[in-house]
Amino acid sequence: MSWLDKAIAFLSPKTAYRREAWRQAWDAVRNYDAAKTDRLNNWRASNDSADRTDAPYRERIRARARDLERNSDIAGGIISAFERNIVGPGFQLQAKTEDEDVNNRIEAEWKEWSKARNCDVTGQHNITELLRTAVRRKKIDGGVLIVKVYTNQGTIPFQLQALEVDELDEIALMPRNKGNRVKGGIEYNAYNQPVGYFIRQYNIDGFTMSDSVYVDAKDVIFYWAKDRPSQIREMSDMAPTVTRVRDINQYMEAVSVKERIAACLAVLIKKQAPGSSMGRSSIASEASDGYTPKTITPGMIADLQPGDDVSVVMPPSSGASAEGFLRLQQRLASAGQGLSYETTSRDLSQVNYSSARQGLIEDEMTYAMEREVLLEKVLDEIYETFLISLVLAGRVTIPNFWEEKRAWFKHIWVAPARRWIDPQKEANANRIALETGQKTFQQIAAENGYDWKEQLDDIADALKYANELGIDLGGVLFGKSEPTAVIDDDPNAGA
């Protein structure tokens, strides 16, 4: 600080502070081109908390994203790509306790409870459909609420209820606990941790809403993405993409209208001396200007009157030039969601094996990130509550469950199998990875969507039955390149 600033600060600290603030702002503009605000960079932006930035526009963006969901095939391609690859046909449970009998019992009970009549309070969606709905609503709405409901309708007194983020009561203001605050229908403690949700559910007529109901946070799974530390509510994942997708749709509509016009062949007949006939019949057959209307049919041969001239009107087509522009725009829209153009457009005309494989790898990284959040925030939470309800209902007996819950909660989810472009190359790569110890059989089975124990049991059963029939299927010993038949029921054979 210069001597002048020090003198000013002694007389007026406020003025000195203002001078220092302006000086720092000017240094930032002078040192960073990104901070310039001249005529070539007329960019106005401000820094606010995440909620002040999002809250005024959250509903509008959500409504626009839903409009694209209903009416845009490009948006549909993006959404369906996430549904197919994050959830797909669903996840397979593998309980990982030390008691194999308990594992088998838990897995059997989970398979039964996962049916629509048991897991969904409405009885309409099984667990896989609920997860696909959650992924879709997070993409479009920004999030979804899954409420734990304790009823006697299913195999155990525990079911799920999916609610839209619209059903958060945003007019609720009074917290249930002293010292807490309510914002956007959610009650927060001093650390901005949700402790309860005010919910006004849509009635069956679709117009009115029920009275506000308070639900403890322990009974609500709020599946959404938090991008900033100060963010407390959801924002549509499609927010960076909706404007581009909307522009693409409007451009395609304009091109479509132009192409329909271009497909119309018009013929104009010019007469040197249009005549007008006398009599009653000519009034009905001729237009008011004296010209008789003509039509064109395929293969028509017509004679013109002496002096008539023909002009053909053929509007120019712009379909060829539009293709490249649309491909670029859709590629950008897909990249904004972390996906490749080929995945969302299903256009594979410009890829080879290497580029398609690299695109799949990058896409899989995007899906893996989303899948990790879905499994940890949603499915793991559902499974733990399911297991507690299973024990309370007496459906399975687990010793020391309440003292060692963490040990009995151990489990993994087997994701859907990945399909490969060239199965032979992938099979050879797996064989080499297995022989060199880079992968285990469990990993390879999980990547293909199988339970490794069940797969080994199936292999053993097939080899055993083939040996009984005298057929050599050639059971493969890992690490060996030559197949070897390996089934013998007699433990003393060869002794």
What does it look like?
- The chain is extended and about 105 Å long.
- The strands form four sheets. Strands 4-5-6-7 form a four-stranded antiparallel sheet, with no helix packed on it. A three-stranded antiparallel sheet has the order 3-2-8. Strands 1-11 form a two-stranded antiparallel sheet.
- Strand 4 (181-183) and strand 5 (186-188) form a beta hairpin.
- It contains 17 helices and eleven strands.
- Among the domains are: 3-42, no CATH class; 422-495, no CATH class.
- The protein is α+β, with helices and mostly antiparallel strands and 495 residues long.
- It is 45% helix and 10% strand.
- Helix 4 (58-71) packs across helix 5 (73-87), helix 5 (73-87) packs across helix 13 and helix 9 runs antiparallel to helix 11 (319-336).
- Mean pLDDT is 83; it is low at 277-286 and 477-489.
- The N and C termini lie far apart (95 Å).
Order of helices and strands: HHHHHEHHHEEEEEEEHEHEHHHHEHHH
Low-confidence stretches: 277-286, 477-489
Q: Please indicate the percent range of residues in DSSP E strands (runs of 2 or more).
A: 5-15%
As laid out across the biggest beta sheet, the strand order is 4-5-6-7
DSSP summary, beta strand count: 11
Tally of helical runs = 17
From the spread of the alpha carbons, the general shape counts as extended
**Sheet with the most strands, sense and barrel status:** 4 strands, antiparallel
The secondary structure category is alpha+beta
Overall residue-averaged pLDDT value: 83
Helix percentage range: 40-55%
